[in-house]
């Protein structure tokens, strides 16, 4: 077992579980997956910054999928950006994937805008605005298909990374975790340093009213919570995590959106504990506007947070430095992709190599 | 390098190339894929026996996909059968996959009936009747997406099996190989021992008239041949074979439908030679109503036929014995799945083990 971990990686929560899992995947070959989805919740003005305008947020996940698969976006010109030109965290995930030559599959977790690259279809359709109180269709079917897919992906891999790109997803995460009583307050993240907490609270409160539920009502009915006030990515990814972690270690990658997925998966199948870590970034851990560590405390520290110590403070690009000022912070499994690259290379890949690769990719993308 | 091959396997064509490829995959872990698709050509009465009625032929591929993924069909009751109750060759592919614990992914190569299990989507839509002269939409896109998928699948596998289930596919294979001038006569297979050659010839002749082409006209335009008179599976699988065989060995599995795919792939990218074998069954090789060996001679013996010596003549079930009388013979990559199971187990799995497993699966399926 690994006695110590490289300085590129940090741990919050059960350190022994984290080291045990990292030891299992050290030097091993895994597969990265990204589940892209849409929830119309992201088109409520002000909710999501993952896109230059509310409408463009629907293109962010699919464009991220195209970037990961073929290195360029097809469904939009250029790359997904937040207002101010801050590039998608797919740039970081791409760097980690390219350095480690990891295989990567896209999963359609319910897209209105369908990526123009091959992807796994699990029968998911895009999510409605949660204020309808009927957010997700066919939740059981897409969860079960996620499980089947997780089992299938486990057969030929030493570990699996499960991640997501779904604009508006912190609002649906907030709703689901409140419905499950995992959190009592709004401590989820945002891709903006000005986390629009009031608006998110209002949207979630409206959704709860229409769905006729209160905080903690659905503590043992996570899929019901997804159906009423969540997004389809959550059901699909919870299924994949449960299916794959039966036999291989899983890194569930993302910010507080993935916390919600882990909470759902752990409630349905507590046996995932011991074979799952939550991969994320230092930016997420240190965010003053959200508290992913407190959420982890509430779900279980036995599914520890393992974060990559990426640091863009010396970047020549303001748009990348913005990550240090609370922008973006996570998404497209960028933290987990880095953890996976570091682990699968037995620590040969480190933050400095990834940093250089990100800049190479970024320079290449903006030159186009 | 393997000096000799086990008695469960036979070779036709360039034996050195076959042994070289089998040596590369001996004891190695690969992934099986099955590309399921529909062409409305199968609904022309008399063309296809892969289904109890012309309409049911559209359900055969999707039901096969469900069988491979979860062990039971959802889109139909029971399992796909030919008239007379002869079960789908998926039963044989399942046996090989279960014995070798091989991972298996379904690819939607253009389905009208969509399987109720996870599958790869490459943007393919079902094929029209070839007598329209406009058989396949978006042929370049689905070919290119196939290439992307092939490359992605190659990253985490030591070898890949590419196969198909597409009722009506021998007629589209006939049309494409005639258009390319690969064959001059109707020597393609059929899932019936009474190969309806006259009807197939008439349908192909009508298609050529409408498309305004003659035999051999499209010798260097294989994707054009697919677009006019082929089926979407052909374009997707040709792409996958080309994409994957850049880096790993590929077993292209099937009967003369797969011959057409190999002809297309080899015309577009001759570099596939050396990294591809055509996996099939003894039943196919010995069929008196078709001549897969002559087709192989015409395409190139350097992509050799490697066949499994399965023998159902002692089966207690008439419906399985029917395979010895010229029924079914191939499909759902059953021959290639057996070759892959034998090779990946370093020869520990043999025809006798597979035979027993087929009967176990068959007994289980008919008891339901």
The gyration radius over C-alpha positions of chain A equals: 18 Å
Give the ordered list of helices and strands of chain A.
Answer: EHEHEEHEEHEHHHHEHEHHEHHH
Q: How far apart lie the N and C ends of chain A?
A: 45 Å
Oligomer state of the chains in this structure: homodimer
Number of helices of chain A: 14
**Biggest sheet of chain A, strands in spatial order?**
1-10-9-8-7-2-5-6
The unreliable regions of chain A are: none
Task: Give the largest interface.
Answer: A-B, 27 and 27 residues
Query: What is the strand tally of chain A?
Result: 10
Strand content of chain A: 5-15%
Structural class of chain A: alpha/beta
What integer is the average pLDDT of chain A?
96
Characterize the biggest β-sheet of chain A.
8 strands, mixed
- State the helicity of chain A in percent bands: 40-55%
Shape of chain A: globular
